[in-house]
Amino acid sequence: MRSYGQYCSIAKALDVVGDRWSLLIVRELLIRGGCRYTDLKDGLPGIATNLLADRIRELESAGLIRREEAPPPVATTLFHLTDTGEGLLPVVDAIARWGIGYMAKPAEGDQFRGHWFAFPAALFLQDADPDGPPISIELRTDSSPVVIEVSGGTVTTRLGTAQTPDLVLSGEPRLILAMITGRITVEQATDGGLEIVGDAAVLQRVLP
Question: What is the pLDDT of residues 102-159, one digit of tens each?
């Protein structure tokens, strides 16, 4: 791990997490919790196996990641963020919010994973009716399905499907992201090809 050699808190932070892929490893663990090595590899398309191993070791040495030997039937090593690593959540939140401005259109070859919806959903969606019934919105793209659950004033995201979702959004990630971040309206999203099945009024409860 190279150092900037500067007595500055920004430089010291970048000494730890400024290398390529480091913050994205933190992103995966913030979203998914404990991960196997193969989970991290899948969530970081484009990273070389040896580079991932190097970055994990560096983050461990810096006290941001810890290992856990999971018992059977998992029987594998799980990687978790330490309390210090979890302290990066507001930093990653701020970068995620700032980076939305660069997501008008994916570049050619850009890959996507469904669980990446977690940050924009948490940052931009809110429960406008905390006393209302719980609702679930399933997001379906070419990647893994994701469920946004809204209840009691909180909005959470999880991988998987909902047994009886109140609403299903199917289409390109860029349309879903643009809609949940308030950059386009529901009508513009459907005009662009987003398919909405279920109670569309649910969106009025959560959209910015």
Answer: 988 889 999 999 999 999 999 999 999 999 999 999 999 998 899 999 999 999 999 8
Domains by residue range for the chain, with CATH: 9-102 (1.10.10.10), 114-206 (3.30.1050.10)
Strand 135-140 and strand 146-151: the pairing is: antiparallel
pTM: 0.91
pLDDT in tens, 134-147: 999 999 999 889 99
